[in-house]
Structures are given as C-alpha cells and as structure tokens.
C-alpha cells in the first residue's frame, strides 16, 4: 500500500504528468528523436536506480517507488535544456503574458473530452488485467507468488501489443492537427490513409510472427508450462486483436486531431462498456471460456469501435474542420504577431502595413481598385493576406538580411509531400491543379499559406501588386528578381517538373 501511495502521488501527479506534457509539446513540433532519446536515457536511469536500491542497499519495495518517481523527475530535467534552447531560438516561446489565459475555456472544451476518451480505454484494459489475474488464480489454482509472475507476463504482453497502435495514434493526431493548422484539407486524408495502410501491413507481419512463435515467445518470460500452453492459445487471438486496435489508434488519433474528442469518448464508451465488457464477462463467468472469452469480448467491442471510427474518418468534412481550426486559432495568431513585433503597425520601405489582416492599408496595398476584397468577411481569403503581409516584411528584410527562400509543397497522385525550393524571388511554381502550399523562409522566420485554384487569380493580382511595391529595391540587389504570373503556371503539363 505504501508503494502505491508513494508512486501514485509522487510520480503520476507530479513528474509523470509534467513529463507527458513536455513530451507532447516537443512531439507536436515534429521533433520526435529527442523524446525517443530522452525515453531511452530515462529507462536506463530507472533500471540502474532499481538495481542500486533493491540489490545494493536492499531497502525493499519502497525502493522501486523511489526509482519510478526519480525516473520521471529525471525525464523532466532532461527536457529542460532542450526546451530552453527552443525558447532562445524564438520558435515556440515568447514569454508569459496575460493573454495566455484568454483561451482556456476553448482549450478545456477540447481537453476534457480528450482526457475522457483516453481514460475510458485505459480503465477498461486495466480491468481486463485484473480479471486476467483473478482467472489465473481460479482456473490454474496457483499460489499468490506464482500468480503474480503470470500476471506480470500477461500484463507485459498487453503492453507490448499496445505500443504499435499507440505510436501510430500519436503520429496521426499530431499530423492531422498540423495540416489543419496549415489550412490543408488534403493532408488529413493522406495521414489517415497512409497510417492505416502502414499499420495493417505491419499488423499482418505481427500476426504471422506471433502465430508461428506462439510456443517460443512465452519461454522468454517464463518457464511455467501452464502459462506457456495458455499463451499459445491466446497469442493468435491477441495478434488478431492488433489489427482492430491499431485501426482504433490511428482513427482515434485523427479524431482527436480534428477536435472531435467528445464524439470519440461517446463511441469508446458504447463500444467497450456497453458492448465489449458485457460480452467478455458473460463468456468468462457464464460461458466458462476463461481468458479466451475475455479477449473475445474485448475484440468484439474494439471491432465495433474501429469500424465506427473508420467510417467517421472517411466522412469527415475536412474543409469544415479547416475553417473550425481557423476560428479556434485566428485571434491567437494575431496576438502572437503583436507580441513578436511589439506593435500592430510597422513602416517598411515606405509602405505602411499591419500584422492585423483586417487592416485597410493591406487591402489597399495588395489589391487594385477594380477588385476590392472584403477581407473582414471573406474567411477563405484571410490567410492569403496574412501570408502577403508577412511576405512583405520578409521582402524588406531580405535587402539587408540575406537571401529569401520560397518553398512550395504539392501532393502528387500518391499524396506524398514533395518539396521544391526556389532561391531569391525568381519564380513561384504552382505544382498542383487544385492548390499549392507556399512557404517563405528567411533565417528562423517561416510563414506559409494554402492557395486554392478558385483564389489563384485574386492571389496573383495581390501578389503582383505587392511585388511592384518592393521590386525597385529588390532590383538594386539582384537584377534577376522579377515579378511572376502565378496563374499562368496552373495549366502546364503534369510531366513538367517543378
């Protein structure tokens, strides 16, 4: 009991929770190797401290609780230097301000259903572990010590098989959120499709491996013949469960990334608690099928959950989700610009402009009199003005801060991102019939926007006017700089590169 109290309060309420937050904070920036390296270091530290406290100082089971708590603290400490480095680079952190607390209501509306969604799955499988231990004690009639060893073995097997869906789910959630933040409705579809195909392929190999090695794998963990025989019966079922659990992991991650956590929590509750659990307990206690019945019931519930998630992901209106993402983050983006610039208006190169995309000065500067755009009421064109405003600043900075790079990404038939880099501002390639992702980079500053075909003419006019305002200064540095007609590139043959 002391072990549980010490571990729970010292680790999970303090260091473990903070460690998870820091891990997700880094992972959402596509920085996945640092968390991996820190995880390896933390496990090594944990194992070493366990050995020292249990076998050298021999302080008993309380030493295990101390080791676990210390390992979580070690994980947090490892993240601090890296996050401080990111802070100094100015990529993600701009300091504490009162505005940080303004969107907590919106944040909690997404966070609490997400907590419920994950907790429901975690609790049901922990209940399965408890029932597994009880079944081992009843059906195998073993003593407590032996039962603990067997329960640990099956808990290890459950944890191992859950790693693949968990990893794919995290990746799907992050990438879907990033694509929605980049105003891309194509990206989330590609994420779900790619992740599912990859996972299903890996799951087939996993099933074959577990089925062929079902007598050998248990020998790694135990020499108990009863456990080996029981494992040989269960491993094929566990392997089959992997496919559907993986589908739940990928689609569930996409659903969380799209902000549909409440829907996911409802589906999870119905699938596992209304359908899966009653079937499991009926097969175990009424039907006498033991662990096979337990896993069969959980598999049925997971199949139902996976099918609902899969259908949902195939019918999500990603264009609508992009608009919702804009509404959720628009004010925060403007506040971020204000924090970065220190003011809402700045005069560069004799042209007045503002980080606020609603500013009339930007509208007058970027579009001609024949085609005035109501920026305030045109949500589909707002992000283009945000891009133009930031591009305007980068143009002026490029006169004294080095070369300006514009990077495009398109999606081919396989929906694979293909980068294209163009030096200076010689050319802007549009490499997709429907849309293109424009990215401009100068040093550590990066901006991006998605331009759709229906907006291309307006964007081209605004872009041309913007270049005219800066072209004289740019030509003094590089005579090769020229204004490019973007829309003329739309109908070029697909075989043409770039």
UniProtKB/TrEMBL annotation:
Highest taxon of source: Eukaryota
Keywords tagged on the record: Cytoplasm, Membrane, Ribonucleoprotein, RNA-binding, Signal recognition particle, Transmembrane, Transmembrane helix
Location within or outside the cell: Cytoplasm
This protein's record includes keyword Transmembrane: yes
SUPFAM superfamilies in UniProt: Signal recognition particle alu RNA binding heterodimer, SRP9/14
Positions of region (Disordered): 478-498
InterPro entries: MATE_fam, Signal_recog_particle_SRP14, Signal_recog_particle_SRP9/14
GO BP annotations listed: SRP-dependent cotranslational protein targeting to membrane
Transmembrane segments: 32-57, 69-87, 107-131, 151-171, 191-213, 261-286, 293-311
Keyword Nuclease in record: no
Coiled coil: none
Cellular component annotations (GO), alphabetically ordered: membrane; signal recognition particle, endoplasmic reticulum targeting
Example of a GO MF term: endoplasmic reticulum signal peptide binding
Family recorded in the similarity comment: Belongs to the multi antimicrobial extrusion (MATE) (TC 2.A.66.1) family.
Protein name listed in UniProt: Multidrug and toxin extrusion protein
Species per Swiss-Prot/TrEMBL record: Schistosoma haematobium
Record lineage: Eukaryota, Metazoa, Spiralia, Lophotrochozoa, Platyhelminthes
């Amino acid at each position: 009991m002391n072990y549980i109290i010490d571990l729970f309060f010292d680790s999970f309420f303090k260091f473990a929770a903070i460690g998870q937050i820091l891990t997700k904070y880094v992972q959402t920036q596509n920085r996945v190797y640092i968390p991996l390296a820190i995880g390896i270091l933390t496990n090594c530290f944990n194992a070493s401290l366990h050995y020292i406290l249990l076998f050298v100082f021999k302080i008993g089971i309380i030493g295990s609780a101390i080791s676990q708590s210390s390992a979580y603290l070690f994980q947090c400490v490892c993240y601090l230097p890296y996050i401080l480095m990111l802070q100094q680079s100015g990529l993600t952190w701009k300091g504490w301000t009162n505005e940080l607390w303004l969107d907590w209501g919106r944040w909690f509306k997404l966070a609490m259903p997400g907590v419920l969604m994950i907790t429901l799955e975690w609790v049901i499988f922990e209940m399965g572990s408890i029932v597994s231990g009880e079944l081992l004690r009843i059906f195998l009639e073993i003593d407590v010590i032996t039962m603990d060893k067997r329960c640990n073995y099956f808990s290890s097997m459950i944890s191992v098989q859950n790693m693949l869906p968990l990893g794919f789910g995290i990746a799907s959630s992050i990438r879907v959120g990033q694509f929605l933040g980049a105003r891309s409705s194509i990206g989330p579809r590609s994420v779900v499709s790619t992740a599912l195909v990859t996972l299903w392929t890996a799951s087939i190999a996993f099933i074959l491996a577990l089925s062929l090695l079902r007598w050998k794998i248990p020998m790694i963990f135990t020499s108990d013949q009863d456990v080996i025989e029981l494992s040989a019966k269960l491993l094929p079922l566990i392997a089959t469960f992997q496919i559907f659990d993986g589908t739940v992991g990928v689609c569930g991650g996409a659903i969380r990334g799209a902000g549909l956590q409440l829907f996911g929590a409802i589906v999870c509750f119905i699938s596992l608690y209304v359908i899966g659990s009653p079937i499991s307990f009926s097969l175990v206690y009424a039907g006498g099928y033991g662990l096979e019945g337990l896993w069969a019931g959980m598999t049925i519930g997971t199949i139902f959950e996976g099918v609902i998630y899969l259908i949902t992901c195939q019918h999500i209106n990603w264009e609508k989700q992009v608009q919702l993402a804009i509404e959720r983050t628009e004010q925060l983006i403007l506040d971020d610009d204000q924090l970065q610039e220190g003011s809402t208006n700045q005069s560069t190169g004799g042209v007045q402009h503002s980080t606020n995309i609603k500013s009339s000065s930007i509208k007058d500067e970027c579009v001609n009199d024949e085609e005035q755009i109501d920026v305030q009421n045109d949500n589909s064109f707002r992000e283009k003005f945000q891009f133009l405003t930031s591009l305007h600043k980068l143009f002026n900075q490029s006169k004294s801060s080095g070369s300006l790079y514009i990077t495009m990404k398109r999606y081919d038939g396989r929906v694979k991102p293909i980068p294209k880099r163009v030096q200076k501002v010689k050319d802007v390639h549009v490499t997709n019939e429907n849309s293109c992702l424009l990215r401009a980079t100068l040093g550590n500053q990066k901006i991006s926007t998605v331009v759709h075909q229906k907006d291309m003419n307006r964007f081209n006019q605004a872009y041309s006017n913007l270049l005219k305002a800066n072209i004289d200064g740019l030509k003094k540095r590089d005579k090769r700089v020229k204004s490019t007609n973007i829309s003329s590139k739309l109908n070029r043959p697909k075989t043409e590169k770039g």
